[in-house]
DNA sequence: TCTAATGTCTCTAGTAACTATAGCTTCAAG
DNA sequence: CTTGAAGCTATAGTTACTAGAGACATTAGA
């Protein structure tokens, strides 16, 4: 049995994050010791490692919630799990496209600046006027920039 | 003079967002009409367009706050502005690197799944075990995934 | 065994950048 | 003059945590 600190160290997750996952129902309520401290077994460690890895791959907690409940039904077909992964891939690809455009614009504006006064700064000028940009990099609302 | 709705439409920013920017001091307090409604002139439109464009390029509001105060001092040297843009470029490049790794892993896991039961699903299996991954894509804490 | 340091407990609030809701007032068109 | 759209304030919700306060539990050393 692991204390919450050991569990966190094993899975690479901070202690308050574990408590948070329990609070939102992503982890089941833990057993408690006589002194009311949480105790975890191997299954909890695996579940937490799954969550951590999926977070590292950019899945949202909502997607992870679905993936976990799928993985609790081993005899079901896996189409739903694959669909979640494919959606995540699409999301990543769209962020990648946007970030690539941003990188290009940022490079362009930095290169163009000759480094004089603000009044002549190409960075400031381009920030004030998208028509000076080479690409249409604008942000569709509800889309995460990052 | 523009009403808040016209201003938002002109700059491509939602009305509540404009009020939010005013609240956090990114936009100055607007003039008011006799009926207490906000009124904006050309300068406010330019400032809001600047903010919008910088947001579209992924700058944080804090960075934008600094860029705006720099652009209010046209005779200063522009090194500080350029530094902010360069920092943003580095940020974008690091996100790009991470997302590229994520894309690779997601493609790998999707391709490997034969589409059977959850128990045999490669997606679920790999999510549970990072050692099955080809790259080290792990998320340094405090770093934005997106 | 006592004690000091570390770990854990609960609860609350804060982060970024908005978005949504409620309940009200003002404005513009017909 | 009336109605519907637009505007006002204030509050709360979003995501995925992180930080803090103040109290209790556990462990290691002297
Ligand atoms: Zn410059
Ligand atoms: Zn642009
Ligand atoms: Zn599968
Ligand atoms: Zn991995």
What do these coordinates show?
- Two copies of one chain form a homodimer.
- Chain A is mainly α.
- Chain A contains six helices and two strands; from the N terminus they run ααββαααα.
- Chain A starts with a helix and ends in a 19-residue tail after the last helix.
- In chain A, β1 and β2 form a beta hairpin.
- Helices cover 57% and strands 3% of the residues of chain A.
- In chain A, strands 1-2 form a two-stranded antiparallel ribbon.
- The first copy, chain A, has two domains: 57 residues, Multidrug-efflux Transporter Regulator, Chain: A, Domain 2, CATH 1.10.1660; 55 residues.
- The interface between A and B is large, with 62 and 62 residues.
N to C succession of SSEs of chain A: HHEEHHHH
Instruction: Specify the CATH class of the largest domain in chain A.
Output: Mainly Alpha
How many domain regions of chain A?
2
**Largest sheet geometry of chain A:** 2 strands, antiparallel
Shape of chain A: elongated
Trace the largest sheet of chain A across and list its strands.
1-2
Tell how many strands the DSSP assignment of chain A holds.
2
- Supply the number of helical segments of chain A: 6
Largest binding interface between chains: A-B, 62 and 62 residues
CATH fold assignment of the largest domain in chain A = Multidrug-efflux Transporter Regulator, Chain: A, Domain 2
What would you say the CATH architecture of the largest domain in chain A is? Answer: Orthogonal Bundle
State mean pLDDT of chain A (0 to 100 scale): 94
* Cα-based radius of gyration of chain A, to the nearest Å: 23 Å
Oligomer: homodimer
* Contiguous uncertain segments of 5+ residues of chain A: none
